């Protein structure tokens, strides 16, 4: 969103940036008050997608006719065609990246190009919907009760879970920034600037190499100042607790007696039709079941490298220095990811200690060549963002790391990462995919939600059309 604003402003468009997590009515009021020619919505996390649907519906209901541009990390052409455009009769266009924003705006506001461009977009989106409908014909999901019988087969008795060297919650704040520089994964940094290619090869790329080298040099110079002058503060908190699987959930206990549950981590199970000998993955499968009597553990973490960033960004913005404002935000994001990587490494080798002999360079760490996983709520294996609330409560992340959650479960500061730790050698990442109503009803019951609440939070994964039900799951 920041880059789009800069690109448009540099092409003589006046951009009114309302910020993040703005209520729908405030957005529409601003469109009217500013006499806007175009409205752009950006989505970073999946709850933003549902909010976009709501904004589109409200625009239609309130009689707005300005073109609607859709962009951001979680959006796509297919999602725009299937879920947003049908709700708004005026032009709705997905903008793939910031570099295309100017061209799209020009065509929409051009008397000569508008009609042909809108007709082309509408025809394209109609084809997307038709292809999607055809693909859905015959697509099958394994019934949830069958999927549960096909859990990941792990013999916990044959290889007992590794007992942690230390349990409970531990804060590491402030965390030394100098320790994180070597752990930075630079490839996503260039993707932030829409420069495609893997680091370090991108520096010599025939097309973008010159730009990449210039950007990298600027980033290195700023990074040195960030570390030397303590522009940012990094904080981390992690916890390891006794745990066991109960159904498709993970029960966390107060102590090793395992008689007093303190929290439940709710998990979802794959239902895509597979060969009968292929497991239907669920994160809970990687934890020993309670009925086995085998002791197991689960971990969680929350880290940020964004403490103090707001004042620095504000200084750049007061000087109309958008480039360095965005550069600082991008580096803070990279440092937060580096802290997540470094902390996980220390958990494996020191704090939990199940891989004490591990010796991996940064390339191997980025390639995830280690035992265990750290899935994050909101990502493919556990798409329910609300599970962050459980993690933040367990970790007391606000007091221990200065982090908080918004109503849509986005993390503040935004340069932040949180997730779970699984140590089992069989644990692996997977994509949940679509799920059926049977599982959604069951999940709603486990979460204490109405069916409508569950369908709202799990909307991208629904393998059926919800009926707008408000009944309590029974």
Quick rundown:
The protein has 474 residues and is α+β, with helices and mostly antiparallel strands. Helix content is 38%, strand content 14%.
Main sheet properties: 6 strands, antiparallel
Number of strands: 11
Poorly predicted regions: 469-474
How much β-strand is present in the residues? 5-15%
Shape from CA axes?
globular
The first-to-last residue Cα distance is 42 Å
Q: What is the number of helical segments per DSSP (H or I, 4+ residues)? A: 16
How are helices and strands ordered from N to C? Answer: HHEHEHEHHHEHHEEEEHHHHHEEEHH
- Give helix % range: 25-40%
Oligomer classification: single chain
SSE arrangement:
Elements (H helix, E strand, L loop, with lengths): L1 H9 L13 H10 L5 E4 L4 H15 L6 E4 L5 H8 L7 E3 L6 H9 L4 H23 L7 H4 L20 E8 L11 H6 L16 H20 L4 E14 L2 E5 L7 E6 L29 E12 L1 H10 L3 H30 L10 H5 L20 H9 L1 H5 L2 E2 L5 E2 L3 E6 L15 H11 L3 H7 L17
Parallel strand pairs: 1-2, 2-3
Antiparallel strand pairs: 4-5, 5-6, 5-8, 6-7, 8-11, 9-10
């Amino acid at each position: 969103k920041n880059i789009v604003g800069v690109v448009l402003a540099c092409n003589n468009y006046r951009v009114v940036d309302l910020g993040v997590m703005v209520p729908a009515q405030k957005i529409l009021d601003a469109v009217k008050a500013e006499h806007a020619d175009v409205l752009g919505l950006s989505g970073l996390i999946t709850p933003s997608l549902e909010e976009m649907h709501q904004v589109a519906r409200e625009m239609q209901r309130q009689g707005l006719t300005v073109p609607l541009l859709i962009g951001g990390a979680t959006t796509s052409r297919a999602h725009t065609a299937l879920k947003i455009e049908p709700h708004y009769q005026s032009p709705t266009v997905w903008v793939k990246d910031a570099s295309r924003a100017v061209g799209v705006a020009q065509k929409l506001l051009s008397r000569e190009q508008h009609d042909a461009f809108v007709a082309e977009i509408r025809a394209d989106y109609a084809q997307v919907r038709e292809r999607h409908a055809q693909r859905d014909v015959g697509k099958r999901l394994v019934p949830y009760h069958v999927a549960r019988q096909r859990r990941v087969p792990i013999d916990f008795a044959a290889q007992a879970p590794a007992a942690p060297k230390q349990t409970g919650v531990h804060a590491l704040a402030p965390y030394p920034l100098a320790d994180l520089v070597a752990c930075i994964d630079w490839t996503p940094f260039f993707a932030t600037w829409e420069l495609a290619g893997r680091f370090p090869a991108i520096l010599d790329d025939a097309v973008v190499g010159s730009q990449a080298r210039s950007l990298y040099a600027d980033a290195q110079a700023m990074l040195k100042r960030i570390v030397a002058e303590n522009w940012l503060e990094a904080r981390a908190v992690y916890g390891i607790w006794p745990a066991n699987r109960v159904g498709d959930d993970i029960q966390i206990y107060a102590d090793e007696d395992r008689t007093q549950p303190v929290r439940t981590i709710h998990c979802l199970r794959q239902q895509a039709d597979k060969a009968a000998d292929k497991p239907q993955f669920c994160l809970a499968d990687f934890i020993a079941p309670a009925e086995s009597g085998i002791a197991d553990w689960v971990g969680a973490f929350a880290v940020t490298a964004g403490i103090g960033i707001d004042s620095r960004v504000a200084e750049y913005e007061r000087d109309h220095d958008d480039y360095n404002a965005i550069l600082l935000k991008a580096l803070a994001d990279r440092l937060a990811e580096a802290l997540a990587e470094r902390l996980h490494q220390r958990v494996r080798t020191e704090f939990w200690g199940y891989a004490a002999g591990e010796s991996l360079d940064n390339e191997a760490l980025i390639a995830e060549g280690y035992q265990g996983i750290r899935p994050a709520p909101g990502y493919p294996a556990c798409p329910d963002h609300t599970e962050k609330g459980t993690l933040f409560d367990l970790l007391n992340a606000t007091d221990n790391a200065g982090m908080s959650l918004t109503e849509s479960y986005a993390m503040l500061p935004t340069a932040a990462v949180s997730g779970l730790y699984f140590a089992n050698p069989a644990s692996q990442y997977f994509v949940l995919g679509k799920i059926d109503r049977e599982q959604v009803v069951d999940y709603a019951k486990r979460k204490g939600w109405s069916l409508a609440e569950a369908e709202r939070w799990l909307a991208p994964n629904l393998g059926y059309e919800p009926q707008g039900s408000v009944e309590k799951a029974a």
